[in-house]
Write a structure and sequence with these properties.
Layout lengths: L4 E6 L1 H5 L3 H10 L3 E8 L3 H7 L9 H9 L3 E7 L3 H9 L12 H5 L8 E3 L3 H11 L7
The site of inosine-5'-diphosphate has 9 residues, from helix 4.
Family: Belongs to the NDK family.
Cofactor: Mg(2+)
GO molecular function, one term: metal ion binding
Length: 139
């Protein structure tokens, strides 16, 4: 299992608000190398599968609606200790709790619409990268 890669999505709110460039700049300035990236839109079935772990949660319907309402930027990022360092860079799930200078503090509107995704383990980084990208799309 690689420990130097993670998976991210710039969620629909980030794309709608024109924050793609600023967020990617922050990611690369923080030492992450982009090894896969595309603009794509998840179907309802895609989002239900991607977030299956949350299917019993009260916000599941809202989450699927949000994540499918427009395009996202999905990417695979490379850096030593990628998963943990990227979670630090994006900040807490709820932007109100996120540290100053984190991506969610800067760009997220709420706990639901929180600008970015970051994998929470090396295992999930691998699963999520393969969910979004074919092998030949990851460099
Ligand atoms: P994470 O994205 O910080 O890992 P998770 O708990 O895995 O957080 O939740 C996945 C996503 O579900 C969040 O990023 C957010 O978009 C959404 N979400 C989490 N908790 C809530 C909530 O209480 N209300 C609405 N949406 C939520």
């Amino acid at each position: 299992m690689r420990t130097d890669r993670t998976f991210t999505m710039l969620k629909p709110d980030s794309v709608e608000k024109g924050h793609i460039g600023a967020i990617l700049e922050k990611i690369t300035a923080s030492g992450f190398k982009i090894v896969a990236m595309k603009l794509t839109q998840m179907t309802t079935a895609d989002a239900e599968e991607f977030y299956a772990i949350h299917k019993e949660r009260p916000f599941f319907g809202e989450l699927v609606e949000y994540m499918t309402r427009g395009p996202i930027v999905s990417a695979v990022l490379e850096k030593d200790n990628a998963v943990e360092d990227f979670r630090t860079l994006i900040g807490a799930t709820n932007p109100e709790d996120a540290a100053e200078g984190t991506i969610r503090k800067l760009y997220a509107a709420s706990i639901g619409e929180n600008a970015v995704h970051g994998s929470d383990s090396d295992e999930n980084a691998e699963i999520e990268s393969q969910f979004h990208f074919a092998g030949r799309e990851i460099f």
